[in-house]
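I am writing to request your help with a piece of structural work I have in hand. Thank you for your consideration; the sequence and its tokens are set out here:
=====
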Amino acid sequence: MGDQRPPAPAAPVPGRAAPPAVPGSPLPALRPGATPDLLTQAHVDAEIAAEHAASAARRARGLLVPATRNDFAPYRSSVLRHPTKDPVQADPEAVELLAPVFGERDVDPLEADLTRTGAGEPIGERLVVTGRVVDGEGRPVRRQLVEVWQANAAGRYAHQRDQHPAPLDPNFTGVGRCLTDDDGTYRFTTVKPGPYPWNNHRNAWRPAHLHFSLFGTRFTQRLVTQMYFPGDPLLALDPIYQSTTDPLDRELLVARYDHDVTQHEWCTGYRWDIVLTGTHRTRTEPEEPA
């Protein structure tokens, strides 16, 4: 018998646009026999445009569109592993008995400075990221545990699974945490992370970003999202960022440069507020695999 495998998608011809994408259809790299190397940025761009158009059409008809699409086809691994069944209701009190416990004395103020975790200064553009954590009415969320993690200036995480050819920084672990103050304000000092390659498709690069985790009043309320930097050309190409299909919602994920936060001859400054509830809440994002 002959080869029964379906044919792999044809390689794109230089100078020719990718074939039109159909919202909700699998990408070439999801089809049997295909590999990420056969899926180009042009294919991903076409799929992103199609998915955004479909979401906009649904909103125009008054239909509900999730703020962040967990089944966003251009984000290949999310399509393969996102939940397909209703969540199981958990007893919050029972979960709390097994969850980690922390108090204000467990979080040292020095943990908010990611540049002081080694014996010397880390390499990279030093910056401060600050903002307020508020509810839908603008009220501060006090004593909120905020955690961040990120790649170093070369775009590499201090993690054994990150083996791409970029240098590690012995003076940078890329993790920090703090508690919000009485005004709901958090503040981190760090270095700007670099972009890094990932295996979503051929020549795929993630834009510079910081991962944020907030725990609310209990661990069952955890929110995980990502913060991006303004003017990054990779944002338009990134399926994870683009999985938030409303352009106004996507803008909420991008910090703004703040010259009042910037410090003379020391660091640049960015402001990023996090809204936990309401129509202007900060969108969560599906995480890329480690």
